[in-house]
Amino acid sequence: MILYALRDIVQRYNGRTVLDIDHLTIETGRIHALLGANGAGKSTLLRVLAFLEEPARGTVFFSGAPVEYSPTRQLALRRRVVLIDQHPIMFSTTVAKNIEFGLTIRKIDQETRRRTIDQALAMVGLSRYRQTRAHELSGGETQRLALARGLALAPEVLLCDEPTASVDAENQVIIADLLRRINAELGTTIVFTSHDRIQAATLAHHTLVLAGGRLIDTGADNVFACMALPQPDGSLLYRLAGNLDIRVNDGQRPPPGPATSGHIAIDPWQIDLQWPASACGDGPGKPLAGTVTAILAEGGHIRVEINIGVLLVVRLRGDVYRLLLPAVGESMLVRPAAAGCSFHPS
Q: How far apart (Å, rounded) are the C-alpha atoms in residues 249 and 114?
């Protein structure tokens, strides 16, 4: 069942377009990851989904009905959704009082408030901190308290902005497991933003990628901001951050003008991984040197992460992996295939 449907959504700040989405649907009862670099529009999209911002243009549908941006209607919708910020603000009182505040505003009776607080704290593993001052919690515990505060309101949708970005490794695992439990046990629809592509792949049922305020029609891996520079020989040179150049003969028509800003998407299945001793050739498609940083088995294939100045994901069939046998820390070369590179102008 479709919970959200966005049509021709545009959001602008001070005349600058920060969100431009033709079409987006979010299904009920699933976990959705929203990936993208800083400034891609992730937080803006969350605020639109939380009914905290009215788009400059377009229509948002929720539960099949178009959203009306009147104070009364927005209040009713906001009570069905909770947005948890990356750095949640807590009252300078106890953990229990922080959770109780929203229940009191909603005129929930005292006995129900007490029972709801106990259930929320048990869910996030903070029962023993009930009377602890919120400012005494660690960063990870604060994020878990923010989840408890949201869960106490029994939302249909939980929107989490970078829920594991500012916490230690132990709490990252705890929070990811919590999101799974909340979705599985309570049926809550969850949308979270992240820079962690592995987390998105393992936690979310569906992954969206934002770049320059637009949804990129590609997998979650290998989407980078760049300049496309047409070369005299007909090839394209994609210049990424830090002057990292990827040059390919991609058969596409060169973008207009001397250079065009945008994003490049590189298919992780169409990247040749080589040992340095086996490399040959130069010119367009010249291999790039990098260091293997992670290797992970995923759904019958192998995911290899290579640091070439940006983190590049290469996906290998099992037989290819066994032939190469790369190891973490080793230097290898990557050569993106022309057909695997697609450019999206800003």
A: 65
C-beta separation of 112 from 102 below 8 A: no
Q: Note the pLDDT of residue 252.
A: 52
Tens-digit pLDDT profile for residues 221-249? 787 878 888 877 777 788 887 778 888 76
Residues 38 and 97 in one domain: yes
Instruction: Please give the tally of structural domains in the chain.
Output: 2
φ/ψ of residue 31, rounded to 5: -100, 125
Q: Which two tokens stand for residue 275?
A: 């040992």
Please indicate, yes or no, whether residues 134 and 249 belong to a single structural domain of this protein.
no
Tokens, residue 51: 């009914």
pLDDT band at 256 (very low <50, low <70, confident <90, very high): very low
Contact assessment for residue 144 and residue 164, using Cβ atoms and an 8 Å cutoff: no
Strand order in the sheet with 189-194: 81-84, 157-160, 189-194, 31-35, 206-211, 214-215
pTM: 0.71
CATH number at residue 173: 3.40.50.300
